[in-house]
Write a structure and sequence with these properties.
The structure holds two protein chains of two kinds. By secondary structure, chain A is of the alpha+beta class. Chain A is built from four helices and nine strands; from the N terminus they run H-H-E-E-E-E-E-E-H-E-E-H-E. The chains are: A alpha+beta, B alpha+beta.
Chain lengths: ~180, ~190
């Protein structure tokens, strides 16, 4: 009887190891990721407005139909990336994602930023140059240090009413995104 | 013979435990990083810069654009408050309050994330558009049958889930003991 219990416990123990392996390796094994879905939009260094959600249609990115989404992919290997512009007076938020689809930084206009988007994204080396004052930035720039070079920025903008969506989308599309030119 | 039998049983237990636990952890996940308030489930760690391994697995599985922690939180309900699966053949009533937030939206989706709003209606209900009771509580009717007051009109058949997204919220931030509250979901008549 003891031997049978030991075999069963061994099975449970092995199951625990399988479970840990599955959880830890899943992110590496996935074919379709947030990054691959976002890359299909070709939004490198430009603010692209994502298509609106429609009833009965797939919504793989899990977008909220009430919001307007602006997407921009950046590569800090090309230099620091900047997001600049003005947004309408309504709720908006900004998130930076890494290749794993994790949010490395996020903020909203409720954090005292108001309507102005003025964000500089720097990797570790560029942040060091910034600290040594070897990179010129304008006063008021919100500096974000990113742990990786490949990133994408997502701006969520909330029009108070549906009829304002197209006008809000135009304003969001006018946000400059990418390295300084 | 006995050895082979014990080995096979042991392997079967290992596979069932390993993969079953993994599936549970990445779907329901209440014991593994998901937080539950009534029938509503949220993954608060999804929006952090270094999510735990379970949240990272869930994030990979969904491959969606998650909300950053500063942006808000999404709550998903697949059952009513009694624990029965939400079904489009039934009408439901949402009653109660949500944690402090700038605004929230409510949508109904199927298992593939397809929006189930009836043709010609709004795809979502928004906090600024609804009428409330004198106590400030929300009362929202959800389903295919005509309902008075705030009504999220749906179309289709089969199981569905409700997604309540809170933007700029204090949920799970220790803002107050009565802050982490979500509306109850009560099943009404079924066709």
């Amino acid at each position: 009887m003891t031997r049978v219990i030991l075999w069963l416990l061994g099975g449970v123990l092995l199951g625990g190891i399988i479970h840990i392996l599955v959880i830890l390796t899943l992110p590496m094994l996935a074919d379709e990721t947030t990054w691959s879905r976002v890359s299909a939009f070709e939004a490198k260094n430009r603010m692209l407005i994502l298509p609106a959600v429609e009833a009965g249609q797939p919504n793989p990115l899990g977008l909220d139909p009430e919001l307007v989404y602006g997407l921009c992919q950046v590569d800090l290997d090309e230099g620091p990336a900047y997001l600049r512009g003005m947004l309408p007076d309504a709720f908006w938020s900004l998130a930076l994602f890494n290749e794993a689809g994790a949010v490395i930084y996020s903020t909203t206009n409720r954090d005292g930023i108001g309507q102005t988007v003025d964000l500089g994204i720097f990797n570790a080396d560029q942040t060091r140059l910034l600290a040594q004052q070897q990179l010129d930035i304008e006063e008021g720039l919100l500096v974000v240090e990113a742990p990786a070079d490949q990133l994408f920025a997502l701006v969520r903008l909330s029009p108070p009413h549906g009829v304002m969506s197209s006008r809000f989308a135009e304003r969001l599309a006018a946000i400059q995104c990418g390295p300084r030119r | 013979m006995r050895f082979v039998l014990l080995l096979l049983v042991s392997i079967a237990i290992a596979l069932a435990t390993g993969f079953g636990l993994s599936y549970y952890a990445l779907t329901d996940g209440r014991l593994f990083g998901a937080a539950q308030i009534g029938p509503w489930i949220s993954w608060p760690d999804l929006g952090s810069s270094a999510p735990n391994p379970y949240s990272r697995g869930h994030l990979t599985r969904e491959a969606a654009l998650q909300l950053g922690r500063a942006e808000g939180l999404k709550f998903v309900a697949t059952t009513d408050s009694a624990g029965d699966a939400l079904d489009l053949s039934c009408a439901y009533t949402l009653l109660g309050h949500v944690p402090v937030s700038s605004f929230w939206t409510l949508v109904a989706v199927d298992g593939e994330g397809v929006n189930l709003a009836a043709p010609g209606t709004d795809l979502a209900l928004r906090s600024s558009e609804i009428a409330r009771t004198n106590t400030g509580a929300m009362v929202i009717q959800v389903g295919k049958t005509l309902a008075p007051g705030n009504w999220l009109e749906l179309a289709g058949s089969g199981a569905f889930s409700l997604e309540l997204t809170l933007y700029d919220t204090t949920a799970f931030s220790g803002f107050g003991s009565d802050n982490d509250t979500m509306p109850t979901i009560t099943r009404g008549a079924c066709a």
